[in-house]
Amino acid sequence: MVEVWLPYGSSEIPARIPEERLIEIIRPQKAPQSQNLHEEVKRLVESNSKLRDRATKADRICIALGASSSTQAQVESAKGLIEALVDAGASSTSFAILCTPDAPKPNPADFPNMKLDYHQPTLSPTSAVENFKGDFHPAINSAFKESDLKVILGELKLHHFFGYSGVCDIVFPGLGSGSSTQAQLSDRAGLEVTDIMKERMHIANAVETYAVGYALDSELAAARTSLGEVDQCVKELRTTVDDLCSQEVKKSADITVISAGGVPMDQSLLNATDTFPAGLAILKRDGVMIVAAECAMGHGGGDFYGWIAERKEPRHLEARLRHNFNYQGYKAAFLLRALEKHRIYLVSTVPDHFVESVFGLRAAETVNAALQTVQRSLGSDSTISVIPDASRVKPKLMQVQS
């Protein structure tokens, strides 16, 4: 047996795979050479005279921390940024650290004598973004918006529906108001799912923020770092992210075992669904996918539940989306379409009734119990591929099999 540990909530759970049936374990690539984030960020700041000049004139500098697969990477890069700006002449008392809801919570001891705050979408004061052109009205954290110098800092990550997430999401929805975040994702005529990231980038550009971003490899070491405007930062990092996450797979599997990646990706079934394309991409027709996702917050959004509970065929939901886009409805249609071709087992804390009677999945207590059930159904010679973190890989099947 090959034992693979899968992220599950804030811990891990085991999957035991018969060695003779295992095709491969699919992980992100390891970078040929890693960077020292602390020193690399300092170097980038020291070479950016415009940023250094603005820092010396700023009374209020707000550094917004976003999602990161590594707390250490976030802390190292933030410390390098602050040290470089202080060396340039910024006052050490001018800094404030603001965390988005999905950012790792930093240790206050890492940022002594600095204000450390957490954005709460429904409670934190927000202000409208004036220069955004669109059919909804984004609002972001007022303290961030009103700062003299704004810097966002986080990882650029793969996203199976949007293309990318992380540092490009910090301004919005990371620092957005709850109402405007919801408004972007529901009741939008003519919107495509690919438009969502474009809008978020436009919002970030409208508030004139600098971005410090990094791409992490399979060992969570920094493969590349970038500093500049948000567009520039994402453009410089996305090729590296693509190289790290893309994996060529030569053979499809009868069974794929995936983890959604632990917190925050598996906080709810709604979140975990974002990772399903990785496992489905390498699965044979009529194959079975087993998903490990704790779902401590249950199934997730009300619209996701509502669209699923209507029990309509995916084509009807997809037709509705073309006229009135709803992102939770989009994911509901995606899940129902996947279930037309595959059985999906879910290992989670969601009550079995919701998993099976509402969402149409199969509930399982453990990954190994699900594997045993599926192997009895498909046969002991069924082949298996494992993706320990489906949020960080994009498999591409080279040989399509029936």
Can you give a write-up of this model?
The structure is a single chain. This protein has about 400 residues and is α/β, with parallel strands linked by helices. It has 2 domains: about 1-25 and about 245-395, Alpha-Beta Complex (2-enoyl-CoA Hydratase, Chain A, domain 1); about 35-215, LarA, N-terminal domain (Rossmann fold, 3-Layer(aba) Sandwich), CATH 3.40.50. Helix content is about 35%, strand content about 25%. The chain has helices spanning about 35-45, 50-55, 70-90, 140-145, 170-175, 180-185, 195-205, 230-245, 270, 275-280, 300-310, 315-325, 325-340, 350-360, 365-380, and strands at about 1-10, 10-15, 20-25, 60-65, 95-100, 115-120, 125-130, 140, 150-160, 165, 210-215, 220-230, 245-250, 255-260, 285-290, 345, 360-365, 385, 395. Strands 4, 5, 6, 9, 10, 11 and 12 form a 7-stranded mixed sheet that branches. A 6-stranded parallel sheet has the order 3-18-14-15-16-17, with helices on both faces. Helix 14 (about 350-360) links the parallel strand 16 (about 345) and strand 17 (about 360-365). Helix 2 crosses helix 3 (about 70-90), helix 11 packs across helix 13 and helix 12 packs antiparallel against helix 13 (about 325-340). It is globular and about 70 Å long.
Summarize the structure.
The chain is of the alpha/beta class.
Characteristics:
single chain, 402 residues, alpha/beta, 2-enoyl-CoA Hydratase, Chain A, domain 1, Rossmann fold, 2 domains, seven-stranded mixed sheet, six-stranded parallel sheet, globular
